[in-house]
Amino acid sequence: MSNTSDLNILCLQMSADDQIRVDKANGTFDANLAADPTYYLQYSQFQTIPVGMDGNPEQFVQLLVDAMPHVNALRLCFNEHCFNADGSLHPQFERFLEAAPQAGLKLIVGYSGNEVSRLGDDGSVGGEALRETLNGSAIQGLTGAWKQMLDWLDDHPSVADAVHGLEIANEPATYARAERLTGNTGEFVRLYADHMLALAEMIDARSDARILVGGWNYSGKFDILASTSYGEGTVLDALRAGIGSDLIWSAHLYPAWLPDGVQTGDQIAAAYEALWGVLGDDDILLTETNAIGNLVNDASQHDPSFNMARYYELLSDRGIGIGWFPGVDYGASSLAVLDAWGRGGVRYLHPASLAHALNAFSLGESDPEVAGDDRLAAVLRAGKVQSEATGRLMAGVDGIATAFGGDGNDTLTGIARAVNMLYGGTGNDSLVGAESDDHLFGQDGDDTLRGGDGDDVILGGRGNDLVDGGAGDNTLTGGLGADVFRLLDTGDTAITDYDRSEGDQIYIGSALFTPAQLEAQGTMRDLDGDGYVDDLLLTTASGRVRLINYANVVRDGIVSGTDGNDVMDDSFVDYDGDTTNWRGSTIRAGAGDDRVLGKAGNDTIRGEGGHDSIDGRGGDDTIMGDIGDDTLLGSGGHDVIDGGRGWDVLDGGWGEDTLDGGMGNDLIQGRAGNDLIRGGDGADTLFGGTDNGNWLNGNGFDGSAGGLNTLEGGNGSDRLYGARDRDLLIGGTGADTLAGNDGDDTLRGDTGTDHLNGGRGDDLLIGGAGNDTLECLRGSDTLMGGAGDDVILTAPGAGLHAQLYGEDGADSFVFRVGRGDGWGTAVIHDFQIGLDRLVIEGIGDLAQVLHSDQVAWIRQVGADVKMLVQGDYITLADTSLDLLA
């Protein structure tokens, strides 16, 4: 398994403090922040330093060490803008980096740059531009910044010695963005590997530190690395082999990233396996996670922080170390505010976040100084403490107080005038709180936990624990094992994981309540807001007891329709409580003629049976009509739409879409954006672009919008219509009709008797196999008939210069001359005398042309025959006039 759990990391946010002062003075600060809330943070184009140092880095570090027990490492970011012209960093940043090792802290240093992470996250940059940037300025900036950082570390050996790991690129999401926009071919997954391997080689040559490589996208996905080919193996194989034993996988996992419906320990363990199972026994470091302070203990909010934080031992079991971001001075989950100015001080604004972070840090650790059966009183860490419930500073509280039991059967006791945070460690421990709002964590072993007065949070952890909240409104979690909950003064008590199948028991007063008694006296409610009526509410003489997820019903994360005709919009709730959400939903409409609306996230929607109407709305959606005559709209975003079986209508909407009609005679519209459109089987009609979508309402098509589209007819006799840009139209099999419309298009008929018309623009028309008709009536086009007896029709006119190739077969070259808008030219490059025909409309075939008084002249010019007909020039290349006559 992984071997990084000894790392307990605070991740520091970075801020462009100097630029903030400048912009506040010139009045642009508020506008900049409104346009981009991260404008001055770690991805900034300005010089950044750790947030909250208040001009006193040394005191900041000392306050951090004093306020944060068990923290032994700091993670911070840099980029090319952090360096001065002489290679130095901001003076405060340098002082901070010097002070941290002196305080015994290790360092994780990582690159965090805009072009590698954020470029195009607003949808404003296309795939080709991202390709150019990633192969150009992005990798140049990344490489240059690392050279500067390695140079700086060479000049500061005491800092270099404290560096545990160098993280090549934090959240390399631009690669994933480019991969998606260019069709998910694997190109940018391999490019990411190339860049990481090259930089790892450079770093390894100059540093003995471990090398951290992030997962795909926002450092969250590793299965893509394992499924993308690279040489004779995969990208994952290449990174492992290239970096070797120095490699640590840098993973990010925020609670909201867990799949919908994940609540229990088993489900969270399964989610971890799905995320990291492909990494096997490699070292993994969870470099970014957190838990929001005012939600992590609120059983009524159904926030994923609540569930994830109650099973941090699952991370320890996998040997995974944890980085908390942001660690201090910034955000709703930061552990403290360090006031480094003046005499200094600490404000614990999110004590709930701190309590759970310290649980994650201390799990599985062993301290030889507390290896026996110890009696420990909590140690006060002075500071102001804010109530998570009220948002105000707590009166009569002098700070937080912590105690860590380690090995052995320990007794840990809270102290007065403090928010106590007690951690039993291994062994059968006894934890006792005091009068304030305490956090008690039994961790491993059969523990006894008593909260005392105050609104306490108690987690038994692994083992058969006795949990007694005492007086107050308490939140109790037994954890893994057969636990006993004793409620003498219930107040408003929430028990989050009562599970009779594990042997859990509940005593109210002195009475043991069986499941039958609980259900007889209680009422089933939805008390945690998860959409299920699966929580049990009991009213007692001294308050109430809430048994959260009593019926153990959880959502499967899929919004499922019925066999009827459903309207699955924002208000739809399926049979197990799932609804659509802004992060992106998986929706299965089921049988019936359904109407489905996605949301702003990246949705996956299946129509399944019936004639369905689906609108993905915002986001990069995947929409499948499946069986039935469906109407599928992508709307905003870069969508993938598959009609499936049936006569479907597909509309990509805005964005770079991939549309496939599937089986049936489909009508497909790409609309704006560079789309890939495939008709599939059947006689399909494909449009590259449209004007405000009027084609869906029967108002016609004029090709006035679109993009660089690719239209593939597939099997069947299809009709393909390009837009106003440079489109590629491929007819496929069948008798197809292809119209390029505006733009410099490429039309390929492929097999079948096809009709190709380039429209406006300088087009390339290729008939392919079959007896095709190719038309060049506007623009300077190249027409190639291919195999078969083709008809090639052109109308020379002002500015038109057509290049004509009949190729194999007995071809007919038909000219429509005398348009009256100026002279044009047409060149036949492979006219076969005796096989091909030349026809000029209004005159006749070649024999009539040779003797017509409408032909101004016809003569041999070098190897070619040229003629002037009603103001237009026609050339038969490499042809003898004598043989023509």
Automatic annotation (TrEMBL):
Classification via PROSITE patterns: HEMOLYSIN_CALCIUM (PS00330)
Subcellular compartments: Secreted
Organism: Paracoccus yeei
Keywords: Secreted
Name of the protein: Calcium-binding protein
Biased composition (Basic and acidic residues): 605-620
Database matches in InterPro entries: GH, Hemolysin-typ_Ca-bd_CS, Hemolysn_Ca-bd, RTX_toxin/Mannuronan_C5-epim, Serralysin-like_metalloprot_C
One term of GO molecular function: calcium ion binding
Location, primary (coarse class): secreted
UniProt GO cellular component terms: extracellular region
Bilayer-spanning residue ranges: none
Alphabetized SUPFAM superfamilies for the sequence: (Trans)glycosidases, beta-Roll
Region (Disordered): 600-628
